[in-house]
């Protein structure tokens, strides 16, 4: 294996600095920009290329996040139209009859999110659920942060890291480990149960504690954008009859229900699934604008789009510099600065994980904890999927030394990588749930940190006994 270069150590140093800064509740944008500049200068040796690299890294991050930015903006635009037409009250009424307490809201939202995410992945599921269930949850006393935590951990955590139905993640890890996909799936089930139960229970306990102490309530909760902002010029339309509001309220779930059927029938996944949800949101927003605002419907359509896009830019603005830095840990580095990394490099993040794995002697306990830590490291790029081939390869290597446990080690690395980078601990990867719930992605990632770390520790202990 090649030796780690100065770029690897600079990247590692800035990761630690960013984590420390976030722990101190300070903004990290400037640190990320300095990190990008310094890495660009070391990589290219020229000031002009380092400066150019800052801009190009931002462009790369925006391109990578554009689909998520747009779907969130369109969902918000549709939600604004529903709110101003007075339809949202009718839509949430059936759920209000079921959800009576903050605890019920947390568990019901989480379980619904997990079930939908198993079949269609979490980002479309968050878009589908958030707009309808968030008002209900806040009404019964569960803060928006609690809703975001539930959607995040059950969807981007449990459902995505197991990926038991679509099986995109198990296929990648199984191929790298050289074992059948079903072996990874079977091995992941007990670990996923432990990880899920421990993580969501710990998160719920922390939520209940902070709510009881008055640190987190619906009344004092800090949100990214005020719920009253930009609404005074678009008041609720009083002239819609109850019948009209009723058929609009029925139309929305019917259309999204047809989307769900189409996703299943035409095997639409990932970006295609998100695009279908986004297109339907535009369609609904146009109908509401034309019906509710009549002659002003054309202008109001544009107004709702602008509201949604303003919200998207406001939420994602602080995320772009951080994402730009961490994308340098994967394929973004080559795209921005060219093929400068040493021959055989798998990207800065994967190189660091592989180097760590090769510095330890192997036993069941050391092997399991090393796979877990490598999974976390490879998840730092905010994808979760980019490093799971590496953990699959390491699981194969470790299992040979240990003499057993290839399926368990592979599943453990997969769960650690995706729980970290797939959408619970990295600020820009939690953005779907954070934006829909209108909370800070940084605060959401901080709140997820302790439950996820506890879950990974307990799950790793269980994995040691299963090896």
TrEMBL record:
Keywords: Membrane, Transmembrane, Transmembrane helix. The keyword Protein transport does not apply. This is Transporter. It comes from Pelosinus fermentans B4. The chain crosses the membrane at residues 6-23, 30-52, 58-83, 104-121, 187-207, 247-267, 273-292, 304-328, 352-377, 425-442, 449-466. The keyword Nuclease does not apply.
């Amino acid at each position: 294996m090649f030796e780690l270069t100065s770029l690897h150590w600079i990247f590692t140093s800035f990761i630690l600095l960013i984590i420390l800064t976030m722990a101190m509740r300070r903004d990290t944008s400037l640190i990320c920009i300095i990190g990008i500049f310094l890495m660009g200068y070391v990589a290219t040796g020229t000031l002009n290329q380092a400066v150019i690299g800052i801009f190009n890294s931002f462009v790369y991050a925006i391109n990578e996040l554009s689909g998520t930015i747009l779907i969130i903006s369109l969902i918000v635009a549709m939600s604004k139209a529903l709110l101003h037409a007075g339809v949202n009250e009718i839509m949430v009424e059936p759920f209000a009859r079921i959800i009576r307490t903050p605890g019920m809201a947390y568990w019901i939202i989480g379980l619904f999110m997990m079930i939908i995410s198993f079949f269609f992945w979490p980002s479309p599921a968050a878009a589908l659920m958030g707009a309808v269930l968030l008002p209900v949850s806040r009404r019964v006393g569960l803060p928006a942060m609690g809703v975001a935590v539930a959607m995040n951990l059950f969807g981007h955590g449990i459902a995505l890291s197991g990926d038991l139905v679509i099986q995109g993640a198990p296929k990648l890890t199984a191929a790298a480990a050289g074992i059948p996909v079903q072996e990874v799936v079977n091995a992941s089930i007990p670990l996923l149960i432990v990880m899920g139960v421990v993580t969501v229970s710990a998160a719920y306990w922390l939520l209940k504690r902070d709510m009881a102490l008055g640190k987190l309530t619906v009344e004092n909760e800090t949100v990214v954008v005020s719920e009253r902002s930009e609404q005074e010029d678009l008041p609720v339309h009083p002239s819609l009859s109850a019948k009209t509001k009723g058929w609009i309220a029925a139309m929305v779930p019917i259309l999204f229900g047809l989307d769900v059927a189409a996703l299943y029938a035409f095997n639409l996944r990932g970006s295609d699934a998100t695009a279908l949800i986004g297109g339907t949101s535009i369609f609904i927003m146009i109908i509401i604008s034309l019906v509710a605002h009549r002659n002003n419907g054309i202008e109001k359509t544009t107004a709702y789009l602008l509201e949604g896009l303003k919200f998207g830019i406001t939420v994602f603005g602080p995320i772009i510099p951080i994402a730009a830095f961490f994308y340098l840990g994967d394929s973004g580095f080559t795209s921005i600065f060219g093929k400068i990394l040493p021959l055989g490099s798998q990207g800065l993040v994967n190189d660091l994980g592989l180097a760590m794995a090769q510095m330890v002697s192997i036993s069941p306990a050391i092997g399991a904890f090393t796979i877990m830590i490598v999974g976390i490291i490879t998840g730092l790029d905010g994808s979760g999927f980019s490093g799971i081939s590496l953990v699959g390869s390491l699981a194969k290597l470790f299992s040979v030394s240990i003499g057993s446990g290839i399926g368990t080690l592979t599943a453990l690395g997969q769960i650690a990588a995706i729980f970290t980078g797939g959408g619970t601990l990295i600020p820009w990867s939690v953005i779907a749930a954070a934006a829909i719930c209108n909370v800070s992605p940084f605060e959401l990632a901080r709140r997820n940190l302790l439950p996820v770390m506890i879950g990974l520790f307990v799950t790793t202990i269980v994995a040691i006994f299963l090896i």
